Amino acid sequence: MSSFSRLIRFIPKSSSTPLIGEPVDAGLDVGIASYESKPIEVEVYSGHSVLNAGEKTGKKETVGRLLSPLGQEEVGTIRCIGLNYVNHAKEVNQPIPTTPTLFMKPSTALGDPFPAPSVIPRAYVADDAADYEAEVAIVIGKQAKNVSEDEALDYLLGITAANDLSSREAQFRTSQWSYSKSFDGACPIGPAIVHKDHIKGLAQVQIAGELNGKTVQDSKLDDLIFSIPKIISFLSQGTTLQPGTIILTGTPAGVGWTASPRVTLKDGHEFRVFVSHGVGTLINKIEEER
Q: What is the pTM of this model?
């Protein structure tokens, strides 16, 4: 059994040094609590990374600011699976893929939960094509290469929430998606990482996306075309997945670009990604770069 059930990375009110720890209130949605400026008491761990958490120190701190569970220096290249929910494939009128589609985001795309904003780059504001994609992100816990589906979960540390922010006009101008999804801060994750040992049945994990108070995406992972073990195994063939590797597992039906009428993200909008089993709600406000 793991040394933790869920962890957050944060700046405490008492200092400017990032810490990791476990929220004292096991039922608290730390994303919403942070957004509402409610106190979040945390049992501090001895480690400085969720990849090597250490043990509880007996010390408690109050969150000053939530950070992404992993830092940019820890994640390497962020791997993303496209078109990986059955109902999303149907809504965009695409055939069900037989092989996972991979695209990449650089570590500089990693973003924090609220109060960190999601920024639409100045060069693409006029396109009016910014879109949301609520996703479950998985974190690799130990070096993985050429692993089978049966052993894939041995390499999984846990899950968190992500928003795969996309600039659709830029995306469809080229055959490769990475550029349009790689802008600074275009991959906020958090607020908490939940250890795999505390999730009974990954297929039952729920994910929901909410735009300005309206639920626009809602699914369980049982709608995935390629399961989490399949994704880990596939990506590890011939390629070493280092500890800290983040993999975005795809977005369910309900994206704005294919909605009728079309919905795009604009300055002042707010997008929330909820993931069950203790991950909580990732919240970001949208800002247009001036």
A: 0.96
Give pLDDT tens digits for 23-38.
999 999 999 999 999 9
Q: Are 158 and 38 found together in one domain?
A: no
**Same domain for 116 and 235?**
yes
pLDDT of 48-62, one tens digit each? 999 999 999 999 999
Report, as ranges of residue numbers, the positions in the chain whose pLDDT lies below 70.
1-2
Task: Determine if the peptide bond prior to 191 is cis (ω within 30°).
Answer: yes
- Is residue 223 in a domain? yes
Domain of 158, in residue numbers: 78-288
Number of domains in the chain: 2
140/90 same-domain check: yes
Q: Which of 130, 105, 103 is CA-nearest to residue 235? A: 103
Cα-trace Rg, the chain: 18
Q: What is the pLDDT of residue 2?
A: 67
Same domain, 52 and 84: no
Asked whether the beta carbons of 282 and 113 are under 8 A apart, the reply is yes
Is residue 182 in a domain? Answer: yes
